[in-house]
């Protein structure tokens, strides 16, 4: 899995940090999302999917890297 | 076949002449005061994108399902600008508010984002998590005072309201001693019964107060939010004042009502209450579930379409108003099976109690910390907590934009 964040879209409400604190953080100066781990281990995939689902600004997306490579 | 099962083609995409408008704000049923208004619930099941009539006889769209509510609130083609023609107002007072300079909740990007980003750092998860010890201390002090030598009190006046008020005053740098002044103005701004005159006066009072405060912070800065907004030098006093007003009101009314209503909902669901007492580690999830189940923004978030958009088989035309009912979305069976029941063990994180889209509540990390501490502390410290009046006599806030209870007499 590869995770992308769009800092332009992010509105800084922090839901992603609550879902997956190992993967997302917020910038000190303005609370905007920061990606800590762009390729999180499988154990965190559910939490990342949850973060995608609850992000109010559609600022997070994931790519299934394995599938892309096989195609 | 129910209406909801008809295909989109059968339902048509016209201006919906076939729909009977629902009058909003629609009252919740007296017998089930935790549930959304029956008409709104029916709409979600039968005609999820329907029509509503407002106080002045105008009409708008009413969007009731989880998926559709998220679609509207997450779509920039629906504007939050109250100054646009067609924007739906729930009351005459609400229209009055829209005539003055709007806060960022009534603006669209990029202006909305520019202003909001001046505040996001103050409410980020790490910052508010660091406030836990302070919030816990405030909660304990309030309960010490409430229970000293007594076995009954009004939970709203002595705990649910002062806790978030103390916290937001601290954060903003507003003297808590003035709390009676803003609580009264805040009540008038949120009451559906206030006359336009009362709304205007309350708004002016708060405006003058906050302008005075901004001026004072310019002379003597501190580390509160008002002081830092002034120090940025990018905002005029009117903008500082309107941001301050927004935070002050939001900080006072929302968490206070969630705390009191959550307590009442748990007292009415003793099995859930006992489960939470037995497993305090459930508190975070339980607070999400309470947010979902109670959804105190009970009249729907207003937007206006800037382009034609098709939603749920209906065409919403540019310039038409839309109300998104968060409470019915949070009971949507497609997302929350058995959603009409309170279940503290449920995964309720997809609720939209804080709204959705770029306007989603800025203060939600703080609200979560406050609610987790308030509910956990109350249950732990008062094992004999009970309602001190008949449930039928509880004064629910049917008349306010933020639902809850005006008072909650409890004993322990
Ligand atoms: S949930 Fe979305 S909007 Fe909120 S901080 Fe994370 S990325 Fe930003």
Automatic annotation (TrEMBL), chain A:
A GO term for molecular function:
3 iron, 4 sulfur cluster binding
Pfam families this protein is in? Answer: Fer4_13
Name the SUPFAM superfamilies for this protein. 4Fe-4S ferredoxins
Superkingdom classification of source: Bacteria
PROSITE patterns the UniProt entry points to: 4FE4S_FER_2 (PS51379)
Please list the cofactors this protein needs. Answer: [3Fe-4S] cluster
**Domain (4Fe-4S ferredoxin-type): residue spans on this chain:** 1-29
Q: What does this protein do?
A: Ferredoxins are iron-sulfur proteins that transfer electrons in a wide variety of metabolic reactions.
PANTHER family assigned to the protein according to its UniProt record, in alphabetical order:
FERREDOXIN
- Record-given protein name: Ferredoxin
Which species is the source of this protein?
Streptomyces angustmyceticus
Q: What is the lineage of its organism?
A: Bacteria, Bacillati, Actinomycetota, Actinomycetes, Kitasatosporales
Automatic annotation (TrEMBL), chain B:
Q: Where is this region: Disordered?
A: 1-21
Q: Which GO terms describe its molecular function?
A: heme binding; iron ion binding; monooxygenase activity; oxidoreductase activity, acting on paired donors, with incorporation or reduction of molecular oxygen
Q: Where are the transmembrane segments?
A: none
Signal peptide residues on this chain, from the entry's feature table: none
Protein's recorded name: Cytochrome P450
UniProt cross-references to Pfam families, sorted A to Z: p450 (PF00067)
Basic and acidic residues bias: where?
1-11
Keywords linked to the UniProt accession: Heme, Iron, Metal-binding, Monooxygenase, Oxidoreductase
Heme in keyword set: yes
Q: Which organism is it from?
A: Streptomyces angustmyceticus
**Which PROSITE patterns would you find in this protein's record?**
CYTOCHROME_P450 (PS00086)
Which SUPFAM superfamilies did the record assign?
Answer: Cytochrome P450
Q: What is the lineage of its organism?
A: Bacteria, Bacillati, Actinomycetota, Actinomycetes, Kitasatosporales
Give the family this protein belongs to, as stated in its UniProt record. Belongs to the cytochrome P450 family.
């Amino acid at each position: 899995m590869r995770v992308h964040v769009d800092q332009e879209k992010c509105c800084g409400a922090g839901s992603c940090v609550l879902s997956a604190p190992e993967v997302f953080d917020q910038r000190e100066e303005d609370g905007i999302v920061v990606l800590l781990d762009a390729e999180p281990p499988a154990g965190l995939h559910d939490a990342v999917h949850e973060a995608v689902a609850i992000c109010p600004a559609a600022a997070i997306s994931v790519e299934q890297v394995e599938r892309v490579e096989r195609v | 076949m129910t209406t909801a099962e008809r295909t989109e083609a059968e339902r048509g995409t016209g201006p919906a002449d076939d729909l009977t408008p629902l009058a909003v704000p629609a009252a919740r049923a007296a017998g089930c005061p935790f549930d959304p208004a029956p008409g709104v619930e029916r709409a979600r099941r039968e005609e999820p994108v329907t029509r509503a009539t407002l106080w002045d006889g105008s009409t708008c769209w009413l969007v009731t399902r989880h998926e559709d509510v998220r679609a509207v609130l997450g779509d920039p083609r629906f504007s939050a600008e109250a100054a646009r023609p067609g924007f739906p107002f729930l009351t005459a007072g609400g229209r009055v508010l829209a005539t003055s300079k709007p806060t960022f909740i009534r603006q669209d990007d990029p202006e909305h984002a520019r202003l909001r980003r001046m505040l996001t750092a103050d409410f980020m998860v790490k910052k508010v998590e660091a406030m836990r010890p302070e919030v816990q201390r405030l909660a304990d002090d309030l309960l010490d005072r409430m229970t000293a030598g007594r076995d009954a009190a009004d939970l709203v006046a002595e705990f649910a309201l002062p806790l978030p008020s103390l916290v937001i005053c601290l954060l903003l740098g507003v003297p808590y001693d003035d709390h009676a002044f803003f609580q009264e103005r805040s009540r008038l701004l949120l009451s559906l019964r206030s006359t336009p005159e009362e709304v205007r006066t309350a708004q002016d009072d708060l405006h003058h107060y906050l302008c005075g405060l901004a001026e004072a912070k310019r002379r003597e800065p501190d580390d509160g939010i008002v002081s830092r907004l002034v120090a940025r030098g990018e905002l005029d006093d009117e903008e500082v004042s309107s941001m301050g007003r927004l935070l002050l009101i939001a900080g006072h009314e929302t968490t206070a009502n969630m705390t009191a209503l959550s307590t009442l909902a748990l007292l009415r669901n003793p099995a859930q209450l006992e489960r939470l007492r037995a497993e305090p580690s459930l508190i975070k999830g339980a607070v999400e579930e309470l947010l979902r189940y109670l959804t105190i923004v009970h009249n729907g978030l207003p937007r206006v379409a800037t382009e034609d958009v098709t939603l749920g088989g209906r065409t919403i035309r540019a310039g038409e108003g839309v109300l998104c009912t968060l409470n019915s979305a949070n009971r949507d069976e497609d997302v929350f099976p058995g959603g009409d029941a309170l279940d503290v063990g449920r995964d309720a994180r997809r609720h939209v109690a804080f709204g959705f889209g770029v306007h989603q509540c800025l203060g939600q990390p703080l609200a979560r910390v406050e609610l987790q501490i308030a509910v956990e502390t109350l249950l732990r410290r008062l094992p004999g907590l009970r309602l001190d009046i008949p449930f039928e006599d509880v004064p629910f806030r049917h008349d306010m934009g933020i639902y809850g209870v005006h008072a909650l007499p409890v004993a322990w």
